[in-house]
Amino acid sequence: MAFATAACLAGPRARDLGVPFDGQPGPLNAITDVAGVTVGHTTLVADLPDGRKVRTGVTAILPRGRDSFATPVFGGWHSLNGNGEMTGTTWLEESGELEGPVMITNTHSVGVVRDAVIAWRVRMAGPDTTGYWWSLPVVAETFDGHLNDINGFHVNPGHATAALESAAGGPVAEGSVGGGTGMICHEFKCGIGTSSRQVAIADRTHTVGVLVQANYGLREQLRIAGVPVGENIREHRAYQDQRDETGSIIIVVATDAPLLPHQLKRIVRRAGMGLARMGSVAGNGSGDIFVSFSTANAQAIASDSYAAAEFLDNGSLSPLFEATVQATEEAIVNALVAAKDMQGQDGRYAIALPHDRLVELLKRYNRWSPPR
After folding, report:
1. 176 an active-site residue?
2. Is 329:208 a contact under the CB 8 Å cutoff?
3. H/E element holding 264?
4. What is the Cβ-side half-sphere exposure of residue 19, based on CA atoms within 13 angstroms?
C-alpha cells in the first residue's frame, strides 16, 4: 500500500487561475500563517489484489505545534447540520478549551484515530495535575465510501501517529491528501484546502486561517466567485442520479487574535457563510461541522487558579467574521483546484474541476482577475 506523510505541493492554486477573492491573505495563504499551527497528512492509496481500492488517510492540525499536548487553546465549535461526527465537542463546549490536536479522517476510522491520539499523548507528556493521563480528542470525519473501500478499515493507529509526527509549519499540501484523499465536492474530486486572511484591529494585525476537508454538494449548486460553474459543467458527474445533498465538510478556523470561547463560537459560525457562497444548502444528509481556536493567551491557560486573559471587545469582531467567511470560501476553491482525477472502488470515479473550463467561465461572466 502506498503510504505517504508528505505530498507534492506543485500545481496552481485558485488565485493562480485568476479566481478573484476579497481580503488580504497571509504570506502562505494557509492555516499555518497563524504562528505555531502545524499540519500533517498521511495519505493511503492502493489497489489491492482482491480488487478493493484504498483511497483514504488522516490529517492532523496541531494548534500549538508540539506544545499542543501540554497547553490547550481556547476553542469553540458549531454544527450547521449534524449528519456527521466530531468527537470531544461536549467537553469543548463545557470547558471552552481545546486540548491536543484536531484530527480529520473518514467516517469509519474515527474510533481508531481517536484511540491513537490518546496513546500518542500518553507517550508525549506526563499525567495531568490529578495524576491521570486523560484525553478527549477532537476527531472529525467525512464519508469517502464512493471512492474508498471504507469498510476495509485501512486506517490504523500508525497512520494517525504518522500524521501527528509529520505535522509542520509552512505550505500545506492540498487536494487528494490526508483525510481528503477520497473526498468529492460538488461531484468533482476534492479534499483538503486552506487559506488565510490578515486583518488590522486597532494597532495590531491578526491572522485568521482556515483548513477544510470538503466532501459536500451537488454539481448544479457550485458557484465560484459568484459564477454558476456547476450549471455550466454538467458532464462527468460523480453521482449520476443523486438529487439530495448528502456530503459533508469539516472546517477548522484558527486565529492568533485574543478571543474567549464564546467569541470563538461566534467566529466559527461564520464559516457557514463561506460555505454558502459556494452554493451549499447544508442538506439533510450533510455533516457540516466546524471547530475554531485561538493561539493567544497561552500563559493564562497554563496558569493555576486565578489567571488573566486578554480578549478583544465584541465591537471589534466584525473584521474577524469577514475574514473567516472569505478564507473559508477560498479554502474550498483551493481544494477543488488542487485535486486530481481519481478512480476508486467498484470502478467509480470523480473528475477534477477542469482548470481551462473554470477560467473560461470566469472570463465569460467578467469575474476573471489576472494572477499576481
Report:
1. no
2. no
3. helix 261-269
4. 27
Burial 237-265 (b: 16+ CB within 10 A, else e): bbbeeeeebbbbbbbbbbbbbbbbbebbb
The catalytic position among 248, 280, 292, 294 is 248
Smallest CA-to-CA distance from 42 within 98, 100, 143, 116 is with 116
Phi, psi of 112, rounded to the nearest 5 degrees: -65, -35
Task: Return the pLDDT at 247.
Answer: 85
pLDDT in tens, 140-161: 999 999 999 999 999 999 999 9
Please give the C-alpha separations between residue 166 and each of 38, 66, 338, in angstroms, as whole numbers.
Answer: 9, 11, 21
Q: Which of 33, 144, 149, 288 is catalytic?
A: 288
- What is d(CA 128, CA 133) in angstroms, rounded to the nearest whole number? 6
Q: Is 47 a catalytic residue?
A: no
Q: Report the half-sphere exposure of 72 (CA within 13 A, side-chain side).
A: 22
Q: How many residues does the chain have?
A: 372
- In order of 124, 348, 353, the CA distances from 282 in angstroms are 38, 24, 21
Is 316 a residue of the active site?
A: no
From the candidates 196, 280, 286, 294, which is the catalytic residue? 286
Tell whether the torsion through CA atoms of 16, 21, 22 and 24 is positive or negative: negative
* Pairwise CA distance, residues 121 & 72, whole Å: 13
Nearest to 364, CA basis, from 188, 234, 224, 236 = 224
Residues of the chain with pLDDT under 50: none
pLDDT at 6: 53
Contact yes or no for 2/344 (Cβ under 8 A): no
Cell of 252: 477548522
Domains delineated in the chain? 2-7+16-364 (3.60.70.12)
